[in-house]
Structure formats: C-alpha cells, structure tokens
Design goal:
Blueprint lengths: L1 E6 L2 E6 L7 H8 L18 E4 L2 E4 L12 E3 L12 H8 L9 H14 L5 H8 L10 H14 L5
Parallel strand pairs: 1-5
Antiparallel strand pairs: 1-2, 3-4, 3-5
Helix pairs in contact: 2-5, 3-4, 4-5
Length: 158
C-alpha cells in the first residue's frame, strides 16, 4: 500500500507493507523523525501529538494509511531556518519543560490551539494542556508558555 501526504511542508511518499502501521511508527522508524515521542501507546498521555489537517492527533492511535492526502506536522517542522516557532520560544523562555518526554506533545497541542484560537481563554489553555500528561512540571510553567506564545504571536494585543 502506498500513501502520499505532506509532512512539514514537503511531499512524502511511503510504501506500507500493511495498512495497520501506526503513524508514530512510520514517523519515527521510516522517516527518522524521533521528535514525536512514543509514550503510552493507547492515546492517553499525548506525548505523540502531531497536527493532522490542523487538528492535534495522538499519532499512536492514528493509522498511517489514514493520513493519505493529509497535511501532517511534527515538532521538527515548526522552526524556521532563522528562528524558533513562537510556541517553542515561549516554552524555552518559561522553562516549561523538565525531562522533555512530553514537551513535543505539549508544543504541538499548543500550536494547534493557537492556530485555531489566537487568543484562547484560560479554560481553553487548561483543556489543551490537560491533553498531554506531564509528570514533572505541574503544568504552571506550561500554561505560562501558552500565554507567552499568544503575546509573542500577537505583539500588538494588550
């Protein structure tokens, strides 16, 4: 089975031996994009979050065959050649990571939320933050990173 999709802005063509391979495995093993973490394998922890057609998706539950024709973005596709994405910069500025296992999932969840809702409420931020499990931080700095990313993306907002 052959699938074609856009990955981080570039066209990708992958031949799958069977249709039941998971997107996280194709990203990590076939495409060597190891920024997407493989955490729980049951969609509960969110460390494998990627953006598929503007929606945050647990790539450990997503069959790779189902992204045929889709736009897929991973943590590796966020930074430009000259600078980090505003969400990445905000996470650094706020020291919103500890061990780093959940960080790519949190960054991708934040990007998905901010692309859909440029000025999210605290409740929307909390809901997005809760979609990715973190054992280290207690989420305070992660929520602060979301707020800083909003400010960095919209410097004219009060």
């Amino acid at each position: 089975m052959q699938i074609n999709f856009t990955l981080n802005g570039d066209p990708v063509e992958i031949r799958l031996k069977n249709g039941d391979r998971l997107l996280v495995d194709v990203l990590r093993e076939d495409l060597q994009l190891t920024g997407t973490k493989h955490g729980c394998g049951i969609g509960a922890c969110g460390t494998c979050t990627v953006i598929v057609d503007s929606l945050p998706v647990a790539s450990c539950l997503q069959l790779a065959a189902l992204v045929d024709g889709c736009d897929v973005r991973t943590i590796e596709g966020l930074a430009g050649s000259a600078s980090l994405h505003v969400v990445q910069q905000a996470f650094i500025n706020q020291a919103a990571m500890q061990c780093g296992i959940c960080t790519p999932g949190h960054v991708m969840a934040a990007c998905a939320l901010l692309e859909k809702t440029p000025a999210p409420t605290d409740a929307q931020i909390r809901t997005s933050v809760e979609s990715v499990y973190c054992r280290c931080t207690g989420y305070v700095r992660i929520e602060a990173a979301y707020r800083e990313a909003v400010a960095l993306a919209n410097p004219a907002r009060p």
